[in-house]
């Protein structure tokens, strides 16, 4: 028998996350086009989802259904279905309570050790429970015995328990993309026990680092009185066991390496190098280069604005003198950073360190240009609006204080860019400043190195993120220590190419071996090992 006509029943992998890896956009003709989202989760698991036909993704659409007619909502739903995604629609009230409220105003700050920012509000907790139930109602009907459900992140910590009750015979994994705090911090959450009991519904609980695993175990011991074995197994009161372990996330190394060689990324890099005077171009036609200086002298002889006003009549501007003080033999350098504009990313502290560099090492005047990409994030939340105002002000202060006529120290971009220009920025950076105050992993540090494959370039990296456990050859700093970060930045700018390559090769070898793909496969293998072994023959 050929097997033709026989129904093949494949076990499924159901990925569940707050947001889907795609968004829909309304075209002018009223149709809906679907676009890949940027961000860690979409780039890490997106390729796995795309490559596995038996993998579906359930998540919130990110849209407000009130904006659309029922017919349009159905079109949006169908657009997602074409990408094997099931879209959930939340009401404005649910978004405010579950997403902006409990997820972003309570769990996000608490898990990043910003307990002073955490809001404890019984109403948003109510919405968090409601939306977790909504997710359970969407997933339960499609999760059959033998299927695997992989839940992502802090938005859905009650979902493992809710699915455990509803879906016998399903393997359930949960992964946390942000840090897990110590019991001293976590126990301040009035609903800490409910959250722990919810998440322990999973067979396997994954974290980025061993430190976060240990924090979780300590919370389970302190708040629930449960012990964990050295193998990470936690025996639960209902006779089940849950296992906890560290699975440091990787990146699609080849994607970033390849993209950094795309023509758009190369054009971006070239443009940045021209503007910062690293390569002949714009700035070499102005006053800071040898040619520019000759032009300046010629124009001063002929009595230009510059010679009339800069030093004598407007000494407070001091522009000509600063330009003259620039050491023309010193090579120009570029510093880069890429972050969501979030208070955990340490952007104000980093700007102070950059400002200190210009103050303490005036020889960098005119010679170091900082490209700061700060992608908008959670713009409706007041804390984020305050942060934006603070960063705007600091950039303005530093640029106002140190700019020369033909040099601006900080180029500040507050828009989201496509991946190719982002890789162009990475590739242009002689130094990447990655200094979060707290971060689960931080993919930017890894992406920067992938865009410098076999090249020089130096990474200044915060000790407060998961990536610092792996990228030990970087210039590791305490991001709160402005002086030391300034010194590390200075050292990174001065590093010689051989030493930079030596450090990078060691880190790049690790990143090539542990990619996003091996991370997905590693987590799912481990899940299938710890989940009910009688299900093994039903899985693919
Ligand atoms: C969470 C955890 C953990 C940023 N701006 C643009 C853009 N990005 C991309 C970066 C990178 C991603 O967004 C940011 O990833 P991070 O890891 O730095 O930070 P979170 O978004 O906070 O992610 C974090 C991660 O989950 C994964 O587990 O590492 O600790 O907080 O990929 O490149 N991408 C594009 N344009 C932008 O303007 N294309």
TrEMBL record:
A cellular-component GO term for this protein: cytosol
Domain of life: Bacteria
Molecular function in Gene Ontology: alpha,alpha-trehalose-phosphate synthase (UDP-forming) activity; trehalose-phosphatase activity
One annotated GO biological process: trehalose biosynthetic process
Keywords, alphabetical: Glycosyltransferase, Transferase
Class of this enzyme: transferase
EC number(s) from the headed UniProt entry: 2.4.1.15
Protein family (similarity comment): In the C-terminal section; belongs to the trehalose phosphatase family. Belongs to the glycosyltransferase 20 family.
Protein name: Trehalose 6-phosphate synthase/phosphatase
Source species of the chain: Bifidobacterium mongoliense DSM 21395
Full-length numbering of the shown residues: 8 to 547 of 807
């Amino acid at each position: 028998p050929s097997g033709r006509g026989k129904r093949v029943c494949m076990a499924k992998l159901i990925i569940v996350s707050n947001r889907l890896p795609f968004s829909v956009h309304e075209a002018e003709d009223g149709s809906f086009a679907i676009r890949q989202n940027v961000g860690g989760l979409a780039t890490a698991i997106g390729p796995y989802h795309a490559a596995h036909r038996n993998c579906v993704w359930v998540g919130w659409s990110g849209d407000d259904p009130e904006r659309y007619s029922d017919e349009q909502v159905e079109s949006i739903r169908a657009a997602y279905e074409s990408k094997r995604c099931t879209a959930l629609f939340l009401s404005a009230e649910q978004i405010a309570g579950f997403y902006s409220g409990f997820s972003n105003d309570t769990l996000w700050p608490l898990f990043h050790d910003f307990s002073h920012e955490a809001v404890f509000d019984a109403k948003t907790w109510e919405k968090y429970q409601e939306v977790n139930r909504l997710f359970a109602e969407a997933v339960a009907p499609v999760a059959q015995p033998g299927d695997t459900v992989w839940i992502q992140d802090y938005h859905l910590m009650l979902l493992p328990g809710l699915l455990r009750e509803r879906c016998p015979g399903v393997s359930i994994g949960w992964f946390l993309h942000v840090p897990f705090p110590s019991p001293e911090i976590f126990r301040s959450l009035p609903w800490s026990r409910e959250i722990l009991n919810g998440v322990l519904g999973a067979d396997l609980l994954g974290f980025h680092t061993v430190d976060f695993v240990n924090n979780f175990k300590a919370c389970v011991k302190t708040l629930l009185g449960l012990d964990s074995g050295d193998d990470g197994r936690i025996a639960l009161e209902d006779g089940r066991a849950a296992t906890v372990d560290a699975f440091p996330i990787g990146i699609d190394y080849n994607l970033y390496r390849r993209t950094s060689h795309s023509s758009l990324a190369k054009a971006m890099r070239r443009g940045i190098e021209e503007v910062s005077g690293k390569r002949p171009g714009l700035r070499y036609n102005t006053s800071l280069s040898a040619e520019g200086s000759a032009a300046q002298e010629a124009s001063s002889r002929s009595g230009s604005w510059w010679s009339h006003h800069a030093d004598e009549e407007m000494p407070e501007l001091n522009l000509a003198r600063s330009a003259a003080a620039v050491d023309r033999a010193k090579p120009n350098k570029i510093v880069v950073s890429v972050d969501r504009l979030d208070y955990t990313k340490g952007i104000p502290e980093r700007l102070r360190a950059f400002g200190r560099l210009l103050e303490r090492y005036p020889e960098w005047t005119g010679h170091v240009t900082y490209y700061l990409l700060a992608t908008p994030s959670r713009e409706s939340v007041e804390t984020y609006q305050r942060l934006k105002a603070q960063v705007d002000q600091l950039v303005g202060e530093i640029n106002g204080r140190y700019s020369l006529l033909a040099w601006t120290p900080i180029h500040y971009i507050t828009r989201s860019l496509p991946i190719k220009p982002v890789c162009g920025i990475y590739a242009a950076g002689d130094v990447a400043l990655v200094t979060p105050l707290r971060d689960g992993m931080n993919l930017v540090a890894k992406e920067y190195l992938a865009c410098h494959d076999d090249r020089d370039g130096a990474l200044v990296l915060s000790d407060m993120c998961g990536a610092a456990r792996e990228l030990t050859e970087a210039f590791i700093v305490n991001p709160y220590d402005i002086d030391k970060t300034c010194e590390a930045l200075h050292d990174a700018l001065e590093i010689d190419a051989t030493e930079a390559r030596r450090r990078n090769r060691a880190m790049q070898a690790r990143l090539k071996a542990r990619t996003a793909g091996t991370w997905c496969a590693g987590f799912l293998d481990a899940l299938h090992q710890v989940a009910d072994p009688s299900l093994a023959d039903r899985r693919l």
